[in-house]
Amino acid sequence: GSHSEADNYARELKREQEEIIRVPDTEAAEVAEILARYGIEPHEYGPVVNALRKKPQAWLDFMMKFELGLEKPDPKRAL
Q1: Residue 8, number of CB atoms within 10 A of its CB
Q2: Are 20 and 56 within 8 A, CB to CB?
Q3: How would DSSP label each residue in 24-74?
Q4: Helix, strand, or coil here: 1?
Q5: pLDDT digits 0-9 by tens, 1-57
Q6: CB 49 within 8 A of CB 32
Q7: From residue 53, how far is each of 2, 3, 4, 26, 32 by CA, in Å?
Q8: Distance separating alpha carbons of residues 68 and 31, to the nearest angstrom
């Protein structure tokens, strides 16, 4: 159970990292789409998208949680 959950998270994390590097404009557009779903206007989410682009780890965390709905598995859960 939790082992495959951790494997899935690691696989998705790697894929998302590669996409941020390979197609940053596409990934930035996905951030904008996600924020727009919450009713945030383009002039409001533009600065957020730009700020995330400057912080790759925060960007990656955002995509994992809000695009994929994945949170880092708790390592203690396997016990």
Answers
A1: 13
A2: yes
A3: HHHHHHHHHHHHHHTT--HHHHHHHHHHHHT-HHHHHHHIIIIIS---PPP
A4: coil
A5: 567 888 999 999 999 999 999 999 999 999 999 999 999 999 999 999 999 999 999
A6: yes
A7: 31, 31, 30, 12, 12
A8: 12
Rg (CA), the chain: 14
User: How far apart (Å, rounded) are the C-alpha atoms in residues 49 and 41?
Assistant: 12
What is the Cα–Cα distance from 54 to 44, expressed in whole angstroms? Answer: 17
pTM: 0.83
Residue pair 12/70 in contact by the 8 Å Cβ criterion = yes
Q: How far apart are CA 34 and CA 28, in angstroms?
A: 10
Per this entry, what is the length of the chain? Answer: 79
